């Protein structure tokens, strides 16, 4: 594992090449109806079409591919409520090594099923960070597996940075690029990619009010862990990582928050207007844009649609 300060434009280019055989170059979509409603031009980067249905495929693939042979031989382990779990299980399967995954008992069933389908072995725990970390510690000791955190890891962040890198490779000149923030892997990677490839683009994070530790940490200038998060955006329940906070503090312009009602409305809008499947966490940046339309009037705004792993029997609208 390197240092996040070693991530630069060249390393992101090399990472994109390294993981090429394991991920999709995802498309950019637009909606004239959403543009009209938002009062700006919105470009959606569709990571809901990514392998495992989420951007997490990028960071997991990079972290596994950068392991030494000796670190790789005993497999990998992590704790995750969903998308990173599936992404790591898949990356491990591609590398021919086992994956030991700690998941909270209340993780969405669709995400547990994905981990199993990719060959990962699930170990359930109570739905809190302490229980997750204690269970993980047991597994690492038992199997001598390499721990690949879901977001607080330079190789994971470097992998997530390739998402924004692809946007800029398309030749888009964006005024703003928005991404959701939970643990901060995607937002910190997006911020680094933007800094090195499009320094004139403002990077803005979007977060649920019921899990707003990144916003509070950003404002306070110190990391404030989340306690008892409560939001429909299940992919954004985790507290902001240490490394991620450092990067976000340095390179992110602002973090906007929205409530669950606003998230659900934005999610429904994407389903109705764009005819694509997204999970609630995915809708948070669009909800933030629509809530703060005056900030974005007439601008060109990129939004990363982070994932599409949602239980279709439990959609929050009818």
From TrEMBL:
Domain Tryptophan synthase beta chain-like PALP span(s) in chain numbering: 22-307
Gene3D superfamilies on file: 3.40.50.1100
CDD domains per the UniProt record, alphabetical: Thr-dehyd
Obligatory cofactor(s): Mn(2+); pyridoxal 5'-phosphate; Mg(2+); Ca(2+)
Entry-linked SUPFAM superfamilies: Tryptophan synthase beta subunit-like PLP-dependent enzymes
PANTHER family (alphabetical): SERINE / THREONINE RACEMASE FAMILY MEMBER (PTHR43050), SERINE RACEMASE (PTHR43050:SF1)
Name of the protein this chain belongs to: Pyridoxal-phosphate dependent enzyme
Organism encoding this protein: Cyclobacterium plantarum
